[in-house]
Design brief:
Blueprint (H helix, E strand, L loop, with lengths): L2 E2 L2 E2 L3 H7 L1 H23 L4 H8 L1 H19 L8 H17 L3 H12 L7 H31 L5 H30 L5 H22 L6 H14 L3 H9 L3 H32 L10 H6 L1 H36 L1 H21 L3 H18 L2 H7 L7 H8 L1 H20 L1 E3 L5 E3 L3 H19 L6
Antiparallel strand pairs: 1-2, 3-4
Helix pairs in contact: 2-7, 2-8, 2-9, 2-12, 3-19, 4-7, 4-18, 4-19, 5-7, 5-9, 6-7, 7-18, 8-14, 8-16, 8-17, 12-14, 12-19, 12-20, 14-15, 14-16, 15-16, 15-17, 15-20
């Protein structure tokens, strides 16, 4: 095999092995995306409160990933500099994944143990805390994992390495989203929400454990200490790191701005799709403040809508899985920029299809089309950025870049959630619903802006 800077070119088998840990990470993250809405709505969360709970992701992403990325650059240990964060994040996230769907039981147990009269929102508060822990731990593992690519893969294979990460994201999400609907269809067995979260916890822990065992960081201890010393000289503070980040190239600012608008558009779908499926596609009214009788009356429709959301996410991620490697191959031939623009356009068209049609068949088809854009989003922006990373700063750069993924989520969790909460549909019997489909219009506009910015990037070619 050819060597480049003491690194050997990866084979297909090595790439598949490399991405197994990210499969587990995405499995857990997908379960949190699909089922956090039904869990928190069942505990009394309105659309705006649900949006505020989702702030866990962006805030932990903006704080945790840059911090952990910088720390992982400077970590010197017999276990490596990235691997302690991969396994540690997985273990703590798995504990929170188990507690989250059992928040009401935990609140009742606290009441029985202490004898105190706890507020009615205690269970929702526990659930919110668990979401924050899950998101923080996912970020603890995710940044160093992305930083492993420039650590262990030769530069000319960075695009394809990120495409294999997209493949793992797609496959992990398909399995996570599709397991419960498949069991229902094949065996008429409805897997409980707590059981699905336990499954996610196991996948996360075992996947990261496998990566930590099989992926060896190639640096010697002497080289790690040298890189640490260099990083400390250049990046004494976060602001120094941020300054050095934007000094990498004028194109880095464009890539970051592109990523910012891309992730506003992406999270408009990720955060609200399950509610859109339940309340818009299957016409279930808002159940956050209704009587138990009304909630029970709509229980079956809610279950159907939730399972439909899981099926759509499975289709979305299956397409991501299928096109991830072709996108990497095409980007190597025609450039990341061209392939990414086309992929974003397909996602825009899919969003508009879902905004103006609530037919389950059309929605499922459009989610498949959107999966093309998702495969590109998971790979090509990182490949474009990795061309400018200096040795010894991989974790710090990826951590700072994550700010432009996490930051947009604040916009979605606050302003978009508030906007939806004001778009009320009044129904008979004093019930209400919301125009959840408006999120796709907002998302399409932001993705269009991202595509225009991508077109302005002057791509560095190997």
């Amino acid at each position: 095999m050819e060597e480049n800077n003491n690194l050997k070119r990866f084979t297909t088998a090595q790439f598949l092995n490399f991405c197994l840990g990210f499969f587990g990470l995405q499995f857990a993250w997908q379960m949190r995306i699909i089922l956090s809405g039904p869990v928190t709505e069942g505990l009394g969360a309105s659309p705006f409160i649900y949006g505020l709970i989702w702030l866990a992701g962006p805030f932990t992403g903006m704080v945790v990933q840059p911090l952990i990325g910088a720390l992982s650059d400077k970590t010197v240990s017999p276990f490596g500099r990235r691997r302690p964060y991969l396994l540690g994040g997985a273990l703590f996230a798995s504990l929170a994944l188990w507690i989250f769907p059992n928040s009401e039981a935990v609140a009742n147990a606290l009441h029985n143990l202490t004898g105190l009269h706890l507020p009615s929102c205690t269970a929702l508060l526990i659930a919110a805390i668990m979401i924050w822990i899950i998101d923080a731990c996912v970020n603890i593992a995710q940044g160093p994992y992305r930083a492993l690519i420039p650590d262990v893969v030769v530069p000319e294979q960075h695009s394809i390495a990120n495409s294999y990460i997209s493949l793992a994201i797609g496959l992990g999400s398909v399995v996570a989203a599709g397991t419960a609907p498949f069991l229902k269809w094949a065996f008429n067995y409805q897997m409980s929400i707590p059981a699905q979260f336990i499954m996610a916890a196991l996948a996360f822990t075992l996947g990261m454990l496998w990566t930590c065992i099989t992926i060896k960081e190639h640096q010697t201890k002497k080289e790690m200490i040298k890189d640490v010393a260099t990083a400390e000289i250049k990046e004494d503070t976060f602001w120094d790191a941020l300054k050095n980040f934007f000094a990498l190239s004028p194109e880095v600012s464009k890539i970051c701005t592109m990523q910012f608008f891309t992730w506003i558009g992406t999270m408009c779908m990720m955060i609200f799709f399950t509610q859109y499926s339940v309340h818009t596609v299957y016409s279930v009214p808002d159940l956050s403040a209704v009587s138990e009788d009304i909630s029970n009356y709509y229980a079956n429709a809610t279950l159907i809508g939730t399972n439909f959301s899981s099926i759509c996410f499975a289709i979305f991620n299956l397409i991501c899985f299928l096109v991830a490697i072709p996108i990497g191959v095409l980007s190597a031939k025609y450039g990341n920029k061209r392939v990414h623009i086309i992929s974003l356009i397909t996602m825009i068209l899919a969003y508009l299809g879902m905004a103006f049609s609530t037919s389950p068949k059309v929605v499922a088809l459009m989610m498949g089309v959107a999966g093309i854009g998702w495969a590109s989003i998971c790979a090509l922006p990182f490949a474009m950025l990795s061309q400018y990373i200096k040795k010894g700063t991989e974790g710090s750069v990826m951590g700072i870049f994550n700010i432009f993924i996490a930051g947009p989520q604040v916009f979605v969790c606050t302003l978009v959630a508030w906007f939806i909460s004001k778009c009320i549909i009044k129904l008979d019997g004093g019930l209400i619903n919301y125009h959840w489909e408006y999120t796709f219009i907002v998302g399409a506009i932001c993705l269009a802006i991202a595509a225009l910015i991508t077109n302005s990037v002057k791509e560095k070619r190997e």
